[in-house]
Specification:
Keywords: Nucleus, RNA-binding. It is found in: Nucleus, Nucleolus. GO terms for molecular function: RNA binding. This is K Homology domain-containing protein. The protein is of the alpha+beta class. It has two domains: about 80 residues, Ribosomal Protein S8, Chain: A, domain 1 (2-Layer Sandwich); about 90 residues, K Homology domain, type 1 (Ribosomal Protein S8, Chain: A, domain 1). Helices cover about 55% and strands about 15% of the residues. It has twelve helices and six strands. The strands form two sheets. Strands 1-3-2 form a three-stranded antiparallel sheet. Strands 4-6-5 form a three-stranded antiparallel sheet, with helices on both faces. β5 and β6 form a beta hairpin. α9 crosses α11, α10 runs antiparallel to α11 and α10 runs parallel beside α12. The longest helix is centred in the C-terminal third of the chain and has 16 residues. It is globular and about 65 Å long. The protein starts with a helix and ends with a helix.
Length: about 220
């Protein structure tokens, strides 16, 4: 068995067969990447975000149309924001980034925070519900939501600043915007609060974890 292995190695490496040259591919344009077809995305507008969307429309429209080179319009009948690629869209991923940006705004994130999704690749939004962590009802649920925010939003701000994330608490649903490792830490802190841990204990754990993250 050992002899056949040796022969195989000698046969494979003994010859001087020249390797073929590496192929060179030109960068693909957006219309080539999508087989020349126009790509679409649609984002539903929740009833509570309709008025904020009208007020912030120019702030949303300008970076998507000018910087990302993606067409955007508001379909009033269907109550959806519609996006599509153009002939001069530099990269097909711009369409998905624009859709993520609009979706983040619909979830309740501020424009300056949501716009980071257009500029950085490693950011994303993670959502979960309080009932995914612990089944709570009535006053227990209200107290859990209160613990997440803290007095005057102090606890939420502390988690955001320590983990470099942004958090939106919409009733029983929680949305976190940030990098993967930071979202993991922020979610762990929020889950501890939902399970009933005191804020002081969560703060001390956050300090040690955020120090490790900075390293």
């Amino acid at each position: 068995m050992a002899e056949s292995t040796q022969m195989d190695v000698e046969t494979a490496t003994g010859g001087t067969v020249p390797l073929p040259p590496k192929p060179t591919f030109k960068p693909l344009k957006a219309h080539e990447m999508s087989d020349g077809k126009v790509q679409f995305r649609k984002i539903s507008v929740p009833p509570n975000r309709y008025s904020p969307l009208k007020k912030a429309w120019l702030d949303i429209y300008t970076p998507i149309y000018d910087q990302m080179k993606v067409d955007i319009r508001m379909n009033l009948k269907a109550r959806k924001v519609e996006l599509k690629t153009r002939a001069d869209t530099p990269d097909i991923s711009n369409l998905q980034k624009s859709a993520d940006f609009v979706h983040a705004f619909m979830l309740g994130f501020d424009i300056p925070d949501a716009i980071s999704l257009l500029r950085m690749d490693e950011l994303y939004v993670e959502s979960f519900e309080i009932k995914d962590v612990k089944t709570l009802k009535g006053e227990h649920l209200s107290r859990a939501i209160g613990r997440l925010s803290g007095k005057g939003g102090k606890t939420k701000f502390a988690i955001e600043n320590s983990t470099k994330t942004r958090i939106v608490i919409a009733d029983t649903r929680i949305h976190i915007l940030g990098a993967f490792s930071n979202i993991k830490v922020a979610r762990g802190s929020l889950c501890s609060l939902i399970m009933g841990s005191p804020a002081g204990k969560v703060y001390s754990k956050l300090r040690s974890v955020s120090a490790r993250l900075n390293e």
